[in-house]
Amino acid sequence: MFRNVFALLIAVFLIASPAQAAESIRIAFIDPLSGPFARSGIAGLRTFELAAELMVNDKGGVLDGKTFEIVSYDNQGSPKESLIQLKRAIDAGIRYIAQGASSSVANAITEAVDKHNRRNPDRPVLFLNYSANDPALTNEKCNFWHFRFDAHADMKMDAITDVIAADNAIKKVYVIGQDYSFGKAVAAAAVKFLGQKRPDIEIVGNELHPIGKVKDFSPYATKIAASGADAVITGNWGVDMVGLGKAIIDTGLDIPIITYYAAHDGITATFGEKGLDRIRVVHEGAFNPPSPAFAAFNDAFKAANPEMDINQPRIIGVLQFLALAMEKAGTDAPKDVALAMEGLEMTNIYGRKLYMRPADHQIIQDINVLTHTNRGIEVDADNSGYGLMIKSTVPAAGEGLPTSCDMKRPG
Q1: Residues 201 and 317 in one domain
Q2: If you write DSSP's letter for every residue of 341-404 in order, what string do you get?
């Protein structure tokens, strides 16, 4: 009898042992889960969690059964707090870091990861940037341990200005954005590409505002109206996009508002009927018409999170890409996985190709210009009946843009 009890205790110990826990590959999600941008961060976290479950774990995991586990860390939208949370994650033994909300945060994390890896070559960490768009991250600030899964600001502006250049009704453009690295990159790219493609267009406004601190955007909207602009370009996101968009609409301006992030997180519902065919979004997503795979994933997401949307569907591809690289490498060791990612190709949930460019670790993919509408919508946003429909597509967007990356690879 005692022998049987002893055997049972040993079995229970083995089930709860660290060896079993090691069967999960932990990925730290470091983004805002509180503060003004929490809604966007929480939606991103939920997308990561569901993508890990449906796209990896439920399909047998990786490397003979290892599963992905998403561990969340609230950075409150702060670069300083992000570094604190990054250290916590690394001290906990996590070797994969995912972040995307804010390029200022991404810049801090990529520098800290690079420094950690140089000091600790036996414990390297890999940074999966799913959305931070500052072009510098895969140009002069590139490093071997950073991979970006979204088109950067210049790539997206290249697509936006293709659309503007083809519209002869647009003679004047107002550029407005948040006062940090990404907002500055958007403004610089707008000036550069419009100057190249439509030198006749006058930029009648080019200004930055404090990020996450403006309570009333009506003075900005008034200036836009007074400028005589035929179109607005903005990289605003989160509450700043809601505030700016609502203020512009309330002025009665009937001009296209061409954006990076004017959908989901309450933004689509705010625009509603007034945003019809006026709001344009540059995005890798193909929400409408949806592919069968994306429609199924979206249904599962909405069933679990009825008040949220998949605001950044590229997250799904991040985990699929990571799993594919691990299988190719035959290990989950970050250095080997990073090498396996270089030059890797896969088909995303929309049936389109993703390619990780080895020179700078920048993803190359199709980019769509989408329009806000309620016509033909199968996947809506904010449970509003409005959503995004493909207006035009730029295949392999930005593939021909040069990179200044001079990457130093580990020995």
Answers
A1: no
A2: HTT-EEE-TTS-EEEEETTTTEEE--EEEEEEESSS-SS-BTTTTBEEEEEEEETTTTTTS---
